[in-house]
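Final report, closing paragraph on structural work. Over the funding period we assembled a curated collection of sequence-structure pairs, and we close with a single example.
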Amino acid sequence: MSILMIFRIAIKALARNKMRTALTMLGMIIGVSAVITLVALGAGAQSSIDAQIQSAGTNMIMVSAGDFRQGGVRQGQGNASSLVPEDAQAIAEVAGVRYVAAASNTRGQIVAGNQNWNSQIQGTDVDLPLIRSWQTSVGAFFTSQDVAAAAKVAVLGSTVRDQLFGVGYDPVGEIIRVSSGGFGGNVQNQPFTVVGVMATKGQSGTGQDQDDVIYVPYTTVMKKIRGTTFLQQITVSATSAAETTRVAEGIAELLRVRHKLQPGDQDDFMVRTMDEIASVRRETTQTMTALLAGIAGVSLLVGGIGIMNIMLVSVTERTREIGLRMAIGAKGRDVLMQFLVEALVLSALGGSIGIALGFALSRGLTFWMDWPTSVPLNSVAVAFGFAAATGVFFGFYPARKAAALDPIEALRFE
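Its predicted structure, as stored:
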């Protein structure tokens, strides 16, 4: 018997009991669609993490001051006075370093006319837009001359601009007043001239609004707002992604020498690459994706068991048919192949519908709930292949049972 004929017989047999066939496929449809949808969610989350890491900066390395201790109480990273501007200048000379931006940050109340807004005040250097691939939408970033002079100039994030001046307003040349509690005492109503507005960046990977900030020269924050001589952080960009780890190690070695730390002494600074942050998030996402895909895989297993049960029922119902075919010359392998093909058609058709449903659910989650999804083609192939293999595996026993029937006993079966 030709394989084409076997397929035609299998389809006719399945069409005789349309409701039972549909219910049998349902388990496979649900299993495959669940695998596709959950893997799409995991892949979408992974892509979102990669995009957020990329938007944070190119080949970025974060150098933070150590923790400050007072009376045995640790105040956390960035509070110590271990980093100074000279450290940033030295880091710029490390091989593989492309850009360096010193940082001294605080929070303050920003006033413009009769509007006010509390926001981050980030003191930084002219290389920050280059490190973070972040351009201004209007005006320009402040200059190295502004940094050297500790000038009172500010570049606004779009959120701050919208709150103080209105959406889309060009505030270049406007005067804002900054009030902040620095270590040297309260600083009230210091006038700053707006020189630019950053392009909209959106949320960071931690959910923080990256546009709710104003940038000023770090020297201005140190001398005229906080009243300090040390930095909280130094942001560095390596020349390439391949150089990031080596550059980070070089920076750590340099700072240990500059800070006169002896072998065995604990670092009074922290060096972190974006790869380290990204790897932790990726591992978490991959674990969750694997867990959810495993749960969805159970649905495939249940669907396969459903196929086996229905095929066993089919063998019982068609015992006289099997005996008649074998009596007129059909061989055991023909009967075996017929029932295997029926099981394969059930699983393949259910898998195909499941794939289509999985794509639809993924697109629906993105459209209606704004969840990022991405359907990897390998997941589609794996899900369909697993569905087909499940059909063959669970269909083999009923098919073998049918092939082993004695024709005379089958003909006598009531």
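Residues 3-52+280-412 form one domain. Confidence is low (pLDDT under 50) at residues 68-78. We thank the funder for supporting this effort.
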